[in-house]
Amino acid sequence: MKRYFLEVAYKGTQYAGFQVQHNSHSVQGTIDKAVSTLMRVPVQTTGSSRTDAGVHALQNFLHFDTELPLHPQFLYKVNAILPPDIVLKGVYAVPEETNARFAAESRSYQYFLYNRKDPFRQDRGYYFPYKLNEAWLQEAAIIVSGYTDFSTFSKRNSQVKTYNCNILHSYWSHSEDGQLIYNVRANRFLRGMVRGLVGTMLRVGRGKLSIEQFHEVIQAKDCTKADFAVPPQGLFLVKVQYPDGLLLPVEKI
Fold first, then answer.
1. How far, in Å, CA of 45 to CA of 78, rounded?
2. Which residue range or ranges hold the Pseudouridine synthase I TruA alpha/beta domain (predicted)?
3. Distance CA 53, CA 18 (A)
4. Is 32 assigned a catalytic role?
5. Other residues' Cβ atoms within 10 Å of the Cβ of residue 42
6. Which of 5, 57, 132, 251 sees the fewest Cβ atoms within 10 Å?
7. Do 90 and 132 fall within a single domain?
8. What would the DSSP string read from start to end of the chain?
């Protein structure tokens, strides 16, 4: 039995989320079906990171086990089966005990906002035509890095043992074409956490929440104090980091 990691990217607009769900169209379910079709046996993958409905990924990973040899054109063949909004970017051989979710050292997300109406960005960003104090936004992002308990920014009904996350970086930046981007990297994230952070920081940027009140919101450890109202299409999972040397590309595919 051999284990392989699949590196994928996808546009999440048409999906009910990443994870397989009964009676719902998911990214993972679509990938499982494509790989199963090629392998001619049922294949069930395990994902590294779950994304909500409408959220995109520039990089995500899954793993699966098989006793069968991979098709010599595995990458090409799977991509021919997958729909246009999902791409298989790489296939890697890993030790059989390596789990795509638990072996990850960190994950990085970006959230995109644009302030001028643009029909070409409506499914890949959040149209936010309001004035923002970017100095306050940046200060709030720095404050985030000083905390570890993010109970406030976890949606209810999350079955987790701890709400602690180690934030490795948190800051706002601009793209070359003027989009405002929130950048955050951590060892783990809670359900709805990035959108909760963005929505609450936007309240700071608009002057509806002071920096002192932002501290209080975090310290309250109460999800009703956060603002989760920002839409999913602005959120991208951009990188899943694994230990150096773990992922060995499969040759001749």
1. 14
2. 140-243
3. 7
4. no
5. 9
6. 251
7. no
8. -EEEEEEEEE-GGGSSBSS--TTS--HHHHHHHHHHHHHTS----EES---BTT-EEEEEEEEEEESSPPPTTHHHHHHHHS-TTEEEEEEEEE-TT--TTTT--EEEEEEEEESS--TTTTTSSEE--S---HHHHHHHHHHHTT--B-GGGS-TT---S--B--EEEEEEEE-TTS-EEEEEEES---TTHHHHHHHHHHHHHTTSS-HHHHHHHHHHT-GGGS---S-GGGEEEEEEE--TT--EEPS--
CATH number at residue 71: 3.30.70.580
Whether residues 33 and 97 share a domain: the answer is: yes
Can you give the residue range of the structural domain that contains 155?
126-230
**Which one from 52, 65, 177, 222 is the annotated catalytic residue?**
52
What residues are paired with 39 via a beta bridge?
A: none
- Angle 232-20-73 (CA atoms, 0-180°, nearest 5)? 100
- The number of beta carbons lying within 10 Å of the beta carbon of residue 92 is 18
- Number of separate domains in the chain: 2
- What is the chain's pLDDT, residue by residue, as a tens digit (253 residues)? 999 999 999 999 999 999 998 888 999 999 999 999 999 999 999 999 999 999 999 999 999 999 999 999 999 999 999 999 999 999 999 999 999 999 999 999 999 999 999 999 999 999 999 999 999 999 999 999 999 999 999 987 667 889 999 999 999 999 999 999 999 999 999 999 999 999 999 999 999 999 999 999 999 999 999 999 999 999 999 999 999 999 999 965 4
Q: Are β-strands 2-10 and 86-94 bridged in parallel, bridged antiparallel, or unpaired? A: antiparallel
